[in-house]
Every structure is written in structure tokens, then in C-alpha cells.
User: Fold these one by one.
Assistant:
Number 1:
Amino acid sequence: MIAVIAASGLRLTVAAALAASTPATAAAQDAMPQVRHEGAATQLIVDGEPWTALAGEVHNSTASSAAYMAPVWDRLEALSLNTVVTPVYWELLEPVQGKYDFTRVDSQLAEARKHNLRLVLLWFGSFKNAKSTYAPAWLRADHDRYARVVTRPSPLPFAKGEAPLSVFDPDTAAADSHAFAELMQHLAKVDPQHTVIAVQVENETGVLGDSRDRSPDAEAAWRAPVPAALMQHLQRNRGKLAPSLEALWAQRGHRRAGSWAEVFGETWEAEELFMAWGVSRFVGQVAAAGKAKLALPMYANAWIGPQKLDEPAGAYPSGGPVPRVIDVWRAGAPALDWLSPDIYVDDFAGWAKAYARPGNLLFVPEARFIVGNLFLAIGRYGAVGFSPFGIEDGIPGNQMSQAYRLLGGLGPMIGEAQASGAISGFALVPGETFAAHLGGYDIKIAGQRETVSKMLLDMGISIPTERPERKPQNIGDNASEPPDVRPMGMIMQLAKNEFLIVGKDLSVSFVANGRNAELERVEEGHYDNGRWISGRVLNGDERLRIVPSDDLGMVRVTLLNASH
């Protein structure tokens, strides 16, 4: 059956129509989205080609009502997205134990196809922001069977409220895994064309207010020997582990066996390590159950931390997939294809770099509406996706939608450039210049306004160079996020002497063999499904500003008779 629910005839009809919309041919099955290593890049492959998810995540409750969501789809299309990050709620999928309602999932599939969008589904199962509010009421009400976390008292306000479910309880893991497997089995039947290209398993997992769970099951696990699978992984990767993990293990002489306290000590860092193993095993079990039904790419996301050197685990969810414990997650959850950061902090580049590491691709499922960070993610750190949170708050025509429209026309060209190392991205603070080396050229990028101002100052002409400051915004205040005033963009090599530049307020110079390269042609335009649509040919005064100062633009630059 498609859905085991009362009055299922209508739902069977909807599901059957979805499944019939594209036959489950062998070719469709061969086009299963996957993660692939190609050259210098780790890529998300969709329909056989590299996919760059120009995405946005809807607010938590938006997808709970098809009627509420109905007008949102048109706005998402108007924002030039190609991918929507959207939840599936365990409490609504399995409102009665063993009875499943897939109508909201089917509605999202139908609307995404109608608007030519792909989906990344968020499984809001046992955990959402280190809480368990999306688990079904029938499970949360049964405290005797489904264990809760026990922690020390905490003054942190977000640690208050009902205790979340414990990752050390096998009954909770089994129930979550079974529901997630039902979801993936349903997708296997009704989505043979893979409108869904990836799935996030749970959301921002871990324990808040304390560095570890202290429930009876957790206490037993803490006193037990460190699992052999983890110890073997650490031994195989000794010398290549995260520095904090390497140092913690070294303090106990790199012991190969013993309890968690004996191998790693009794500090909060050791307890975070313990929680990372427990949480990753839980999430990995759920992911593996789903992959057994439909092997889509799957990942877990992190509420990042520590954000200050002295910030202990528990101030952020202890056990979540933060950089210091990624090695533990790799050992504990092999069914996951990557780990992702939710980045709302100002140091976007630092956190993006921490996840753009060997063996892990960068996909940012939650971020602020800051366009320069999009260019950094994709151009400098090889991201396969970028997704502002609360995307339905976005205003069509804003900077993000302009950037998505320009980048969307490139299609797989972005992924191909990432694989060959022929791309770079930048977002400059006042006074900063950026240097890239592509195709034998040393490329210097600076702000156009600042470059002109300096040139005029050298001529003895003084003009104001003030630039509006960004005002800090609340995380949920995405609709009023001000435009990114930084000089920003991306440069990509197209051929031996040809480059594509997209961005705003840029001065770009090319040097080969110590000599400035002369420009042959600068042409405005944009790409449409990988085909260049030309606009003006820029020369004369317009060469001083090849992309707009206050808006985003795209140009192709050809260099004259360059020899290397």
C-alpha cells in the first residue's frame, strides 16, 4: 500500500498520479542523486551532472499546511531558486503509531515539479534544535517506554522546558528509524524522477544545558568500554584527527581500550566526545534504515559551536556534528554522506572552511540573506549548496534572487569549474584586495569605488569614500536583511584566455609573467541553460566599471594575445 491510513482511497489516488507522472524507468533509477569525488571537488550529482543548490529553507511550520504553502511556491520560483529545503514532520506523518499520512509530502512533490524546483527534505524526527517537539504525541506521552535526557540544572534559558528524548534509548531509535524508512519507501514509489535530491536526518542534534546525558542508559554507556569501532577509527587516523580530539586522546597516552573516562578523561570535552558517539549512532541508524529503502544522499546539520574559546559543550548542543567531533561522527554514522553547518554568525568564512575539508562536501542548509557569503561558499570553498533560512520572507528582485538568477543559468558549469580548480569567490571588507591564480594568471581583485578613489587621490582629487555599515540583524529578521554593500563576486576561467566575472563594485586586473595582460573584449550578458546570451560590448569609459557598482552583473572577459 502507498499509505496505511483510514480513508486512504484519495491518498492512494494522489500517490498513484505522482508515480505515474514519470515512469520508473531504468534510466530514471540510474539518475539517482549521489555524491561523487571529481578532481578537486566533492560534488552532488543530479541527473548525471554536478548540481549547485541555489536554495532556501522555509520556516519551520510553513510546510505543515498545503493551503498555507500554496502561494509560497510562486514566490520561491520568483526568487530564482532551483532547490527548496523543506520539512517533513514525524508528528504529522505518523499521528497514530503505525498509521502514515503522506499527503503533505505528496503535495510538496507535486508543487515542486509544477514550479521546476528540486527538494531537500528535512526529517524533523526525534530531534529539532536539540528538542523533541516534533516526535509524535503517542511517543512523547509514553515516558515509561521512551527515555528522556537527564541533565544537571542549567541557567541557560534555551535548556529549559521538557527534556528531550535520549539517543541512548533503543526503543526511540527503533521507532524513529521505522518511520523514516516508511517515508523513504514512499518516496521510492512516488518520486522515481528524484524531485527529492537529498535528505537531512534530524535537525541540530545534541544536548543543551549540560555536556552529556545522565539518564540511566547514558550512565551505563559512559561506564562501558569505548566501542571498538570508534577506537579502530581513531587508531587508523591518528595524526590526522581534529587537533582538539588528538590532544584529548594524547593526554591519556593514546589508550586503546577502557571506559570513556579512562581513555579520554572526565572533562566536558570528553563528555562531548561521548555524546557525539551516542548522537551519531542514533542518527546513523535512522539514516541507514532510510537508505535501505531509497539510497538518496543524506546528511546531518550542526548548531555550530563553540563560538568562543571558553564556551563549553551544552551552551551549544553537545554531541552535534561540530568540527571538533567530526571524526567521531564519521565513525558513528557511515550512512551519512556529509555534515553541514548552519551559519548565522559573522565569521561565515571561518565556519565554511571548517566543513570544506577532505571527505566532507560543503552544503549550508541555513544561513542569513547575505549574498557575499553565497559567493564565498560556492567560489572559494566549493559548496554544492547555499540556503538562507526563512526564504519565503525574501523579496523577489532582492540581491539574493539576482545572484541566483545569474548563477542559475550556468547549470553544471559551476561544478565543473570547482572540480578543475578554475573558480574563486570573494567578499571584500574595506581596504581589502583578493588575489587568485587561475590558468597561469595572477588576478588582483579590489573594490571599484576604492580603486577609483585611490586613483583620484593620487591625482590630488579628494572625494568621499564612506560606505554604509551593515546593521546587525536578528536571526529571524531575514526579510529586512540589508543589501550586502561589500565588493563581492566570483571569477571562473572559461578557456585559456577567457574568464567569467559575476558580482558588483569590482576592479579586476590580470598579470602573466610579470606583465599586465591587455583586455581584448569585455562583454556583458548572462547564461541561459549554459548558453551565453550577449549584451553590450564594454569599452571606453565603461571599462572603468565592468560590473555595476550598486547592482549585480555578469561579464565575459577575453585577454589579448596572452602568452605564459
Note: The first strand starts at residue 34 and ends at 38.
Number 2:
Amino acid sequence: MRPAGPRGRGPWCHGRWLYALAVVALLAQTGFATATTAREQTPTIDEPVYVGAALVYTRQHSLRYNPEHPPLGKLVVATGLMFADARLDPRFDGDQTELGRHVLYESGNDPWRLMLLARLPVIALTLLFGLVVLAFARDLAGPIGGLAALALYSFSPDVIAHGSLATLDVPAAGFLLTSVWLLWRARRRPRLYLPLAGAALGAALATKASTLPAVPVLLLLAVLSVWHARRADRPGPHAPGPHPSGPDAPGPREGARSVAYAAAGAVLVALVAVAVVWACYLAVDPRLRWTAPDDLPDTGGLRELAVRTLPFPQPYRDGMRVQFGFEETTWSGFLFGRHYRGSLWYYLPAALLVKTPLGMLALWAAGTLALLLVPRLRPAAPYVLVPVAVLLAAAMTGSRDLGVRYALFVPVFLALTAACVLALPWRARHAVTAAALLYVAVSSLRTYPYYLPYSNEAFGGPSKTRLRLHDSNVDWGQDLGRLADHLRHRHAGERIWLVYKGSGVPSFYGIDASDPRKAPPDRVRGLLVVSDSSIAKAEGRLEALIRSSEPIDTVGHSITIFRR
């Protein structure tokens, strides 16, 4: 009997099929979770703005809406809206919040269908970034490591929650990860991968300006990759063949040449990234017509200097001024039951501690240790850990304590650490990694389909997240449709008093409700329905109404129903 070779149907071939099936199964799980979540959730607070802006971009070729964010993420959303045949009044001249409401609820469009089509391209990107995680982890730790990293990414509640929405957080983090992976590959083939890394970096910058702090890091990584490639191409002392000697031997001149090549590589990455940003704006309006908003904040000092020196279109720079204006605003936050004004530097680490599965936290810690201690993984540490550290440090200085979505790059990048754990010199490393991944999977599956309010078991699970966090960590307006179904089936005919935090229109979903804050307290009788973010920040009359009411039910772990 002839033995099966590499092209036969032997164990090697079967192993390839099993591996491919495992990859497909993990991505299918993510696809199912994101698609069903997208289908069941009503618009979150930011989504209508992006949907409205996307339609204006493609129909009117105007950049006037949502300038605080670059256009690429909204152009991604627009690819789904191409199939919606959505109505848009060309004479509409309201602000971007009014635009979103107009498109979804006042133009004869079906908001359920429109939102699903807007979310599908982001879901597709979420799955593609899973393949990037797989490929990057395979490069670091082999095929099994790739599967471990993909599993950690695929079951991440935060990745699923935000990968199912027509928002910008997953695309920005994913494009940045793609750029870093390509820079890692540029250590062997810089001519091929450096331009691609620049394109991916440009895509990240053209999606969210909050990725800008990573630019110096990635340019230094480009230098490091080219330097490594030059050293790898240089024959070692024990390599066969003749070795240069005398004036041709490697020396200061060769070192200077390597530095020049490395610097040129970083310049190439930067130029391609800048070109991609410009291309995204020109794709919306080839003439780049732009009028700065009347209420554009007047930034000064180093911020204004940074804005003026950026080689980006004027709308991008004015969008940064809008963002700096947001940063100058005093926002309110909620952490571990405390409502406060301003921001806390430790908010994001604390929120990540609550909203990350325990097994994932353990793998992050062990994988980081492996990256720092295992010699063959140590070269990858600057690529995996430094961008995360820099971006997290920058995000922690922000003024908006509104959710872990501002640090979504953490679970996206640190999924790679699961692969690195397998390189530790522990006899039980495979069993420990498998057990941690199983724990993450079970914890993630148990929260289905309520991924947005997820918190781990140490903090009581999704039903208790509202006691410790607010806003997009718990309640982003996503459960208005579920609330309508709940009231229709369980509380038909009862008087409804509603305090809803979101962009949806309750009456569209059949909710006939009044605002309890505009009525005398003794007239507020029946059902008091309050979004959990509003409960977290309740003051004055609303706080008194809540204290004098009895909680009887919850919807989606984001809305509480009281009886009065």
C-alpha cells in the first residue's frame, strides 16, 4: 500500500481539514452571535448619527455631518445601506442627531431593516479581523496558538457587543491590529509589507482620530522591522561562502546605510497612511468642499500646534478641534455605585476588570509574562504590548468615562496572548490554556444575547453590571424594541411612565408613555420604566420617584421596571 504523501489523504490532510473546521466553527459562532444581536437590538445612541452621515456622504457627497470622526467607518456602514433604498430628504438641514432621527423614523424607512443592513459590514469586518488575529498568532506561536488566540477573540463579549453595531470602535481597533501584524511580517519582507502596513494604519486613522497616539509607535516598529530585515539579510560569521573583509566588511558605513533604510521604511509607512486618509475624504467629495462649523471650539497651545502640523485635510483637523472641545467639557461618570463629575484616571482599567471574562484576564496576564520571558517571543513584545500600553495611557487621560469601547483595542490585541501562553515552559500549559478558554466560552455563551451589559462572575454577571457601570457598558439605548415587546405581552393596558436614554423613538415601537419628571409625583402611578444609565445618574425628582417605587422586572439587563 502506497503511503499517503503531503498531497494524499493521510493524517496530515485530515489535520488540515480539522483545523479549517475549527476556524470556521469559531468564526461561525462570532458571526451568529453578532448577527442575531444586530437583528434584535434597536439603535444605540451613536448609530443613527453614523447612518445619517453615511447616507449624506454617498447621496450628497457632503462632509458637513459628524466631522468629529473621519469618514472611513461611515463609508463602511454605507456599503450595507446601498441595499436599503433608504429615503433621504435632500432639503433636510437639521443637526446630526436630528438627521439620524429623520432618516430612521421620519422618512418612511424601516429602522429595523436599515439598522441591520448598516451593521452587516461591521460584522463582516469583525470576522475578517478574527482572521488577522489567527494569522498573527500563528506567526508567533504556531497553528495551535493561532486557534487559541482566535477563540479568545471570538468569545470576547466586548468584541461581539461592538462588532454587532454600526459604530467605529471595532473597525479602528481591527485596522490598527492589521497594521501591526503587517509590520511584524515586514521583518522578513519589508518591500511587500511596509506599504500594506501603511494602508492599514491609514484606514485606522481614517476611522477614528483616537488612533493617532499609536502613530509614533508604529513608525518606530517600522524602523525596527526594516533594521531586523537588514540584519537577517547580512551573512553571519558562520554562513557558507566568502565573507567581506577589509574596506568591504560591515562597519560604520553599513550601519549608516541600515539606519537610512529603516528611516525610509518609516517614511514610506507614514506617506501611505496619509495618502489613505486623503483618499477617504476625496471618496466622499472629490472637490473637498468644507465649511467649518460655526461652533468650532477654539483650541490653543500644544493641541492647536499639533492640529495645524498634521498633513491631513482641513475637515480632519477641524474634527480634531471638535474632539478637543469635547475633552474640555466636564462629563459625568459612574463607577462602582458612585456618580461623579469629571473623570477618573483609573476608570478604564477598572471597567475592563469588570467587563472582561475571568479566564481572559488570566490568559492576558500569563501571555504578557510569556512575551516578556520566552526568548523566541520577546521580539514580538514591542509589537503586541507597546501599542496597547500607549493607547490605553492616552485613553486614560480622556474626560469621558463612558465605556470600555474607548479601550476596545485591549481585547483585540491581547487575544494574541492566548497563543503566547502555549510557549511557556509549563508541562500543563495546554491543559491550563484550554481550561481558561473553555471558561471564557461558557461565560460568553451564558450572556447571549445581552453582550453589551456583560460583566464577569466576580462582579455578579450581566444582571449586576448596572450597579457598577453605566452608559455603553450597560445601557446604550439598545433594548427599546425588547421593552416594547415586554410591555405588550406582560403589562398591556397599564399606564407607562418612561425615562429612556437612547436615540430610539418609543412611540414608533408602540410605547405610549409620559415623562414622570414633568408631572407631579402623586400623579405618577402605574409602571415607572427607567433606563439603567438614568438610574445611575438620577437626582432630584427622578431619584425620589425611584426610591419610592418597587422594582418588579428588568429588560435586557439595561432597563428596570418599577411599580408605583
Note: The mean pLDDT is 93.
